[in-house]
Amino acid sequence: MKKVISIFVAIAMLTTIFSVMIPGAVFAADNTYDQNNSITLAASTMQLEVGKVTGDVNSTVEIPIYFTGVPATGILNTDFLLKYDPSILEVTKIESGNIIVNSRAFDTGIDKQDGILAFLFSEESGDGLESIFEDGVFAVITATVKSKTSAPITLEKMGALADNNFAKVQSTFVAGGVNVGGGTPTTRPSGVPGQTTIEVASVEAAAGATVQIPIYFTGVPSKGILNTDFLLKYDPSILEVTSIESGDIIVNSRAFDTGIDKQDGILAFLFSEESGDGIESIFNDGVFAIITATVKSKTPAPITLEKMGALADNDFGKIQSTFIAGGVNVGGQVSTPTPTPTIRPTSIPGQMTIEVAKVEAAAGATVEIPIYFTGVPSKGILNTDFLLKYNPSILEVTSIESGNIIVN
Fold first, then answer.
1. What 3-state class would DSSP assign to 389?
2. CATH code at 234?
3. Cα 305 to Cα 380: distance, rounded to the nearest angstrom
4. How many CB atoms sit inside 10 A of residue 72's CB?
5. Which residues make beta-bridge pairs with 197?
6. Closest CA relative to residue 220, chosen from 148, 87, 299, 321
7. 158 and 128 within one domain
């Protein structure tokens, strides 16, 4: 117990040091994407992930903690706390993983009474040579399974995460544990060609926890994004949204504004380039915004699109977009399925394919369903007309707009 206390003290000291050296360096990592292993990450975002393992009652299991997307400037230090249920898991030890060069830079603590695991990494050499520079296993938790009940391991608190330049590293967190199930959820999309994907991350958290929910922009056009505005919908009886901050793709925070309607459960987002010459537009894929919220209930809390406003590039041209819902999943799959456009088929030689995309969405959500033309002949398409059939008792079609292959 003395070791646990010493680790907590060390973490508190390190957090204090970095909060002084780097404004805003102490933060809670984003819980996102319940994956078995690793996923494709947004630019400049590192992922901390607890592996998912299975084990019978009385068996001993090893649960890895993965670091993915480690920046080229390395990880100089980090500290964080994880939470587990000691009535289900008996954690016996924690060892450093293969990305730790010097084990003396790595320390941990186990609070078996409260179910807290403390982690501290602080580069020892003083010149940064023993920092973490590679993706891989940061730590391995060894535990005995005491019950058949699912035993999630979640983020309790994120402390510092800094690179060799003492700069804050953006991060996301993926919960794991023993016998938590979950299969393999869909990974972050690579983006539909010619479209920008706006995606609310799916995160896991226990009731009472504070979570950070990133909003990703993927497929940002080369002409950049000059402005955009949209509304998201959430259930204020389940989530208490406390703040919204700009993400790493926002160059000038003054160009970014938000609003929180806690009564009706509406989140408003506005981005409008400030410089006037387009140099502060959004040009990279990555995190557009981070929603911080407290989980008030055990019920899943989807965050869906309420209304899409403008989305324009630096030439004032409209940008086609796709929206993927997310939210907070309390101990299970997020109840709101994410819209998942089908992979566009390889065209059959000599034939053109007309494809209506398949998407998934919760009742009450607004979705955009693209129609793809694949295998357009070299002579072009002079004209076409066709009728599609749908069930108006299930879908209310509100508008149809031309796609990016229509010149006029």
1. coil
2. 2.60.40.680
3. 36
4. 7
5. 218, 322
6. 321
7. yes
Q: Are residues 82 and 210 in the same domain?
A: no
Question: Closest Cα to residue 168, out of 377, 25, 52, 365?
Answer: 25
Tell me the two tokens of residue 222: 């080369």
Are the C-beta atoms of 320 and 196 separated by less than 8 Å?
Answer: yes
pLDDT exceeds 80 at position 225: yes
- Please say whether the beta carbons of 42 and 287 come within 8 A: yes
Confidence of residue 108 (pLDDT cuts 50, 70, 90): very high
Q: Answer whether residue 283 shows pLDDT above 90.
A: yes
Determine the Cα–Cα distance for residues 340 and 237; give it in Å rounded to an integer. Answer: 28
**Tokens 């056009």, residue?**
221
- Rounded-to-integer distance, Cα 181 and Cα 150, Å: 8
- In a 3-state reduction of DSSP, which class is residue 255? helix
Is pLDDT of 107 > 50? yes
Whole-angstrom CA distances from 400 to 324, 397, 403 are 19, 8, 9
Strands 326-329, 301-312: parallel, antiparallel or unpaired by DSSP?
antiparallel
pLDDT more than 70, % of the chain: 78
Q: Does 28 score more than 80 pLDDT?
A: no
| Cα 254-223-373 angle, rounded to 5 deg | 130
- Which pLDDT value is given to residue 23? 31
Which residue has better confidence, 52 or 192? 52
Mean pLDDT throughout 354-371?
73
**Do 5 and 139 fall into the same domain?**
yes
pTM: 0.41
CB atoms within 10 A of CB 95: 14
330 vs 310, more confident: 310
Residue-number span of the structural domain to which 380 is assigned: 336-407
Q: Considering only CA atoms, which of 359, 291, 325 is closest in space to residue 198?
A: 325
Query: Is 36 within 8 Å of 49 (Cβ atoms)?
Result: no
Of 287, 303, 335, which residue constitutes the final position of a domain? Answer: 335
Tell me what percent of the chain is helix, strand and coil, each rounded to the nearest 5: 5, 40, 50
Q: Are residues 191 and 160 in the same domain?
A: no
Residues 168 and 198 in one domain: no
Answer whether residue 18 is part of any domain: no
Give CA separation, 14 vs 26, 78, 80, 337, in Å: 10, 9, 11, 40
DSSP for 25-58, please give it: ---PPEE----SS-----TTEEEEEE-EE---TT
pLDDT of amino acid 349: 58
